Fold these 2 entries.
Entry 1:
Amino acid sequence: MLSSLARNWWLVALRGTLAVIFGAAAFVWPGLTFEVLVLLFGAYAFVDGVLVFSFGLMAAGDREQWWPLVLSGILGIGLGVLTFARPETMALALVYVAAFWAIVTGLLEMVAAVRLRDVISGEWLMGLSGVLSIIFGVLVVAQPNAGALAIVYLFGFYAILAGISQISLGFRLRGLGADVRNAPIQTASSASR
């Protein structure tokens, strides 16, 4: 696998370049980026729903418990269709889900920090993280448009950093290519000695 990656190092670098471009686009066109993310979510929910629904039908054919899979599949298909029919409604819903997730996560981190104070030192950092998470969630609920923008910018920042690391990896693999080609091939019998 390493030799294959080293031979095709440019694909890893290309993947990173595309991530950097997408991340930069998030900063240049944040509204469009959020719309694309919402539509990608809808496509994922629809395809996932179709697959889970088909698994449910297969389970029914094998006389296994099928209804949870069928129900989950129908829910995913419906969510995907709703996303494409009403993308602005789903965009707002996704922002509120992110806010709710941040608040719940923050509360759980604060509880964990209190419980761990006798076990670890620096537990206040976990508590601080929880407080920041709750503040973020509350701010997103108070200003959902700004919350959507924050999500896009966080995603853009992530995509740029991940892309830079992929580009770096690609060029490291390029340099490794000659070493892999010149390395002696080790068979299974010589490896066990």
Note: The two ends are 22 Å apart (CA to CA).
Entry 2:
Amino acid sequence: MKLALQLSPLVFVRPGELRHMEWEEVNFENALWSIPPEKMKMREPHLVPLSRQSIKILEELKKTDRHG
């Protein structure tokens, strides 16, 4: 929970979009999170550039995620 709260202001997406993020959507090499249209309010795909800080938090989250 703490890491998700730290990530939220860095990616600036709705809480539900962050909560339903899937690891397949995150490209760590290109520092990009591709949110598919079906998860977006306007039904348009959304690309979220990821800062170094965001990548670090996501890597920590992935370590603790039993599905990751």
Note: The CA atoms of residues 44 and 65 lie 28 Å apart.
